[in-house]
């Protein structure tokens, strides 16, 4: 029987080409012609071992011979693809058969089981994924996760992904636990110590490595300065905090998988005290000076809001819910703050929030306006607020004065002097 005739019969009658029993039943009782004996052998070759019903759902467990048969069929399929005319219909059908064979082989090697939805291992909290995406890579074996036929898990803390079959092989603890116990950055730029200090082994899994790539390629992490194997270092890139603080450099550098996750989890944590780590940075980066002034003004506005019913109902402070440290202090920064400062996004958003806050205090709310100050030195001009430009604030009584009235040359502010004359404060 010719191939095209068999293909036509399949398309018309919806015959399963992988089930030989249906074909045998349709030709039962008929003697094949003698001239078809040669073409019959070629048809069997085109079956590629698919005469057996490899795609029906198995009953019980598979034996090893089923896997061997599928491997032989895959090898035969590859050979035929190379021999058949390019872009021909037969070659296209053979490619489709090859794909199905490989999927079936993978299913036999990794049979689906009733896996728990949550598993805890080395402080990882693994959650079973339902996505059928095939664009994920297993962090343990560095192979593709075939979501269509494989069970896989993701750690809800550090987003470590792996096959269910790789779960018992994991030896890396969850990075989020390190973030919780040790929330600080390595502030030295690429602190390299050399492969000899690592005994020519991967800093994480202890696999033998070398710069010549024998037996495994050594890849350096720009954050830790150590060398890793290709399974622990995928050439991912990240912005390095030490380079930002010391050089104001934001070019992403290659880091290992663990460092990449650690930096991703730490990027929004305010753990950088710039005035202690590198105070000279404010002399060379004008944007940082502007951001510092806006943050200081917001801290001066905060007492108005927490004592204003209208401000509490409007939840004005929630404008900074993504940067809570901005309403707590003015000297702690996160790496994301510095990245947004460099790009200009932080200055724009913070200026807009500053304007909204000032509008409420000075224009919209009468109660907040009543908490303003008159300059005790000149006793003229508009109502002053501590966040206004060209004003000075007493550090003891927090009274506000015009800076142009030489308040800075006074030893004591007039309000403090008056209180001292009237007796101690209650």
Automatic annotation (TrEMBL):
Domain of life: Eukaryota
Keyword Zinc-finger: yes
Annotated Gene3D superfamilies: 3.30.60.20
CDD domains linked: C1_DEF8
UniProt key word Metal-binding: yes
GO molecular function: zinc ion binding
SUPFAM superfamilies linked to this entry: Cysteine-rich domain
Compositional bias segments (type: Basic and acidic residues): 17-38
Stretches for region Disordered: 1-43
Function as written in the Swiss-Prot or TrEMBL entry: Positively regulates lysosome peripheral distribution and ruffled border formation in osteoclasts. Involved in bone resorption.
Protein name, as recorded: Phorbol-ester/DAG-type domain-containing protein
Organism whose genome encodes this protein: Cyprinus carpio
């Amino acid at each position: 029987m010719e191939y095209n005739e068999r293909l036509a019969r399949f398309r018309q009658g919806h015959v399963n080409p992988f089930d030989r029993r249906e074909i045998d039943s349709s030709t039962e009782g008929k003697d094949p012609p003698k001239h078809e004996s040669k073409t019959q052998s070629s048809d069997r070759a085109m079956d590629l071992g698919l005469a057996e019903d490899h795609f029906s759902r198995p009953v019980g467990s598979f034996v090893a011979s089923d896997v061997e048969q599928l491997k032989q069929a895959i090898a035969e399929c590859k050979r035929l693809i190379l021999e058949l005319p390019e872009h021909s219909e037969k070659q296209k059908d053979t490619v489709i058969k090859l794909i199905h064979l490989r999927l079936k082989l993978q299913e036999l090697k990794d049979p689906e089981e009733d896996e728990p939805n949550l598993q805890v291992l080395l402080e990882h909290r693994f959650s079973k994924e339902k996505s059928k995406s095939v664009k994920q890579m297993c962090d343990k074996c560095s192979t593709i996760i075939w979501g269509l036929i494989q069970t896989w898990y993701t750690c809800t803390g550090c987003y470590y992904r792996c096959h269910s079959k790789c779960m018992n092989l994991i030896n890396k603890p969850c990075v989020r636990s390190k973030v919780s116990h040790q929330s600080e950055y390595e502030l030295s730029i690429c602190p390299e110590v050399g492969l000899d200090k690592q005994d020519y082994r991967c800093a994480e899994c202890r696999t033998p490595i070398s710069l010549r790539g024998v037996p495994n390629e050594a890849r350096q992490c720009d954050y830790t300065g150590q060398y890793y194997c290709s399974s622990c270092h995928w050439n991912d890139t990240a912005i390095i905090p030490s380079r930002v603080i010391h050089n104001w450099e934001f070019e992403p550098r290659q880091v290992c998988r663990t460092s990449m996750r650690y930096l991703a989890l730490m990027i929004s944590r305010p753990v950088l005290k710039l005035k202690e780590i590198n105070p000279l940075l404010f002399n060379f980066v004008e944007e940082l000076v502007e951001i510092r002034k806006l943050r200081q003004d917001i801290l001066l506005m905060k007492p108005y809001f927490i004592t204003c019913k209208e401000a509490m109902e409007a939840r004005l402070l929630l404008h900074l819910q993504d940067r809570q440290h901005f309403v707590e202090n003015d000297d702690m920064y996160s790496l994301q703050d510095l990245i947004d400062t460099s790009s200009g996004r932080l200055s724009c958003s913070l200026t807009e929030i500053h304007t909204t806050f000032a509008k409420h205090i000075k224009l919209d709310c009468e109660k907040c306006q009543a908490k303003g100050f008159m300059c005790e030195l000149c006793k003229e001009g508009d109502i002053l607020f501590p966040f206004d430009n060209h004003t000075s604030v007493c550090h003891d009584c927090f009274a506000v004065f015009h800076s142009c009235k030489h308040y800075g040359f006074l030893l004591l502010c007039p309000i403090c002097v008056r209180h001292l004359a009237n007796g101690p404060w209650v």
